[in-house]
Design brief:
This protein is an alpha+beta fold and 117 residues long. The protein contains 3 helices and 5 strands.
Length: 117
């Protein structure tokens, strides 16, 4: 299994707009395409201080695929090129132009009581 990892950053004022766009348009349109090998996605965020000292919100998208070949079917070549819709570019302050791909080699599930005292 392969995880396609991409990051983009917004101002705090644009964070909710980007999250809404991702949840209401970007990811639903990707899943509606019935892309072979696409298993799902996760979206994460965190508040950070950027290298230039500004307050930003970092957004990370994880998309899970069966294989690198399935990713190539989704984005073409090169597979490490970021593929962003114009609406996202209007909201993002900056973004990774290259996507990273990681092969999952281990996974564990915690029990519901894990971490509770």
């Amino acid at each position: 299994m392969i995880c396609r990892v991409w990051r983009g950053w917004t101002t705090p004022e644009n964070a909710a707009a980007y999250q809404a766009l991702l949840a209401s348009e970007i990811m639903p349109s990707i899943h509606a395409r019935g892309i072979p090998g696409l298993l799902g996605h996760e979206a994460l965020r965190r508040d950070i201080i950027s290298p230039d000292g500004a307050h930003e919100v970092e957004h990370m998208t994880l998309m899970w695929f069966r294989s690198l070949e399935d990713i190539e079917g989704f984005v073409g070549t090169p597979i490490d090129r970021a593929n962003l819709p114009p609406k996202a570019l209007e909201i993002l302050k900056r973004w990774d132009e290259r996507v990273s791909h990681f092969e999952r080699f281990d996974q564990a599930q915690s029990s519901p009581s894990c971490g509770q005292s």
